[in-house]
Amino acid sequence: MTPTAVIELGRQAVEITLMVSAPLFLAALVTGLVVSIFQAATQINEMTLTFVPKVVAIFLTLILAGPWMITMITDFMRRLFSAIPAMIG
User: Fold this and answer.
1) Angle (deg, nearest 10), helices 51-82 and 3-42
2) Sign of the C-alpha dihedral, residues 30, 36, 40, 43?
3) Could you tell me the end-to-end alpha-carbon distance of the chain, in angstroms, rounded to an integer?
4) Which has the closest alpha carbon to 31: 2, 16, 7, 51?
5) Could you tell me where the DSSP H helices lie in the chain?
6) pLDDT at 79
7) CB 76, CB 8: distance < 8 Å
8) What is the pTM of this model?
């Protein structure tokens, strides 16, 4: 296995990780922004107010994007396992 192949494999792994985690991060970011605007408008400074909406948003995003996320991960793992004989020999 050449150093170039190792770097390419690492790049693909990081790319898949970012693609799979992006919907969850975006849901948390948007929810946090909306709650922050609401807190600024109403002058409510309760730290626990941001926690519950973020958890709900991430849970709903997992339900909606979960099948796509699992497909991306399993496709990557399937390609990785099928390439093992070529990497060894």
Assistant:
1) 170
2) positive
3) 8
4) 51
5) 3-42, 51-82, 84-88
6) 93
7) no
8) 0.80
**What gap in Å lies between CA 4 and CA 9, rounded to an integer?**
9
Q: Domain residue spans in the chain?
A: 3-88
Is residue 20 within 8 A of residue 73, CB to CB? The reply is yes
Q: What pLDDT shows up at residue 23?
A: 96
Q: Give tens-digit pLDDT for 9-27.
A: 999 999 999 999 999 999 9
Amino acid identity, position 9: L
The radius of gyration computed from the CA coordinates of the chain, to the nearest angstrom, equals 19
Q: Which of 13, 7, 30 is nearest to 72 (CA)?
A: 13
Length of the chain in residues, anyone?
89
